[in-house]
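Contributing new records

If you add data, match the layout below exactly. Sequence lines come first and carry their own label; structure lines follow with theirs. Keep one chain per record. Anything else will be rejected by the validation script.
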Amino acid sequence: MNNEKIKEFDDETRRDHYHLSADDDCYYFVEFIKGAGYGPPGNSFIKNLKKKPSKRGTYEWGHKLRAINDAAETLRRDLRTEPQPEQGGDKGWERRAPKRSFIAI
């Protein structure tokens, strides 16, 4: 799951989310497919992330922790605020670094 890249909503993806306007800057890294169960990777990630605290101490809790770590790694990797020297000064970082960040789960 943690090889997903953050993508920006475009006009096509925004059509599926009527509450977003063209002025909204919105990004995502997984898609949830309604009715598809745990099959698609995005569904599995979201369902594991939403595990209730009552699952703490069960084998299911490990799935939640892995989902949290995967999300953190994706955000850390893709939303960095300055170029990484080991990559030779990533030229696209200014475009990807958000001025404001909102994360909806």
